[in-house]
Specification:
about 60% helix, Alpha-Beta Plaits, Helix Hairpins, four-stranded antiparallel β-sheet, Rossmann fold, alpha/beta, about 325 residues
């Protein structure tokens, strides 16, 4: 990444050098005419400009032999400086077009490979937090955004993105909504979130849709539109602030456990032919072998059981809610999959 940035900056540095050299040349020519031909400042500057530009408007006053030799040198050096500047500008233009073309091809190639991925609609304050967590978890996702500044940020981050309105059917198809696993709608406009939820549900009936709501009425509308989960950042933020004021030690514990402590909460599904099928929680060895604890289990067509009993039997399709170190959870995930 650093090497790429250095290569990209090189033509710009050359252009700045050429501009600086041209300014020095303009100043030197003006001073030279003033010293050699005893010209006034404006006349000397005029002579320097017409000499470097080679327009040939004629001399202000007849030049002495030394002055004409100075003009010849000024023209030769000036032509070299102009040629260098022109080539540098051309290099910048070509590199910019090439970088755009290669970036577009890389983006299209990455989009073609997506399957079972996440679609993130919106790269605002909430969307950036979602994307940061996705990057940390190393999951496949694509961002839909139309704002130019946000797209520049996406390019700098090297993230897959599609430019367009998330509510547009063609844009959603380009994002692979047919094969996507989850859609996260973080659009700032509540009406757009509702419309996007309706559109996405119609295009993929099995899609897991998580939508943002700012008010209680919007939450109800999003659920009716087909959202599986509705999250209100304002409500969550207010609850956390209240918790921090009422139970600060609990908040510190949660932050240390799930943040700086390197612990994570994950959900995993028991697959067919798993070594855990038919075993009880006590017999599974999840705590001893992986260092993880089961804080919840969801049987098919049943609600989640919090802190299940040790004699609970694990079966295919059971969803386990686990808490533990990242290494243990990753090791368990690989074995389950």
């Amino acid at each position: 990444m650093a090497y790429h940035a250095q290569k990209s900056a090189a033509p710009t540095q050359k252009l700045l050098t050429a501009i600086l050299f041209f300014i020095v040349l303009l100043s030197s020519g003006t001073i030279g005419f003033m010293f050699l031909e005893q010209m006034k400042l404006i006349d000397a500057l005029y002579m320097t400009v017409i000499t470097l530009s080679t327009v040939g408007f004629g001399e202000v006053t007849p030049l002495h032999p030394l002055g004409r030799a100075f003009v010849i040198c000024l023209i030769l050096v000036g032509m070299g400086a102009v040629a260098f500047m022109a080539s540098t500008i051309g290099q910048i233009v070509v590199q910019s077009q090439l970088r755009t073309l290669l970036g577009r091809r890389k983006m299209q190639k990455g989009l073609r490979k997506l399957s079972g991925h996440f679609i993130l609609a919106g790269y605002g304050r909430v969307g950036r937090q979602v994307a940061a967590e996705f990057k940390r978890q190393k999951v496949k996702f694509v961002v839909i955004e139309i704002d130019d500044k946000s797209i520049e940020d996406l390019q700098d981050e090297g993230l897959l993105y599609i430019r367009g309105m998330a509510t547009d059917d063609d844009v959603l198809r380009d994002a692979g909504i047919d094969s996507a696993r989850t859609l996260i709608s973080t659009l700032p406009d509540e009406a757009q979130n509702v419309y996007l939820t309706l559109t996405a549900r119609d295009m993929n009936a099995d899609l897991n849709i998580i939508a943002r709501a700012d008010f209680e009425d919007g939450e109800k509308k999003l659920v009716r539109a087909g959202a599986n989960h509705v999250v209100s950042p304002h409500v969550l933020g207010g609850q956390r602030m209240a918790m921090a004021s009422l139970r600060p030690n609990v908040v510190d514990f949660m932050h240390m456990t799930l943040g700086d402590g390197g612990m994570s909460i994950e959900e995993m599904v028991i697959p067919l032919d798993s070594v855990f099928n038919g075993k009880s929680l006590a017999e599974s060895g999840l705590k001893q072998n992986y260092g993880v604890n089961i804080v919840g289990i969801k049987k098919s067509n049943a609600r989640i059981t919090i802190t299940p009993e040790p004699n609970t039997i694990l079966e295919t399709g059971d969803v386990l809610v686990l808490i533990g170190p990242g290494e243990g959870l990753e090791k368990l995930s690989k074995e389950l999959n």
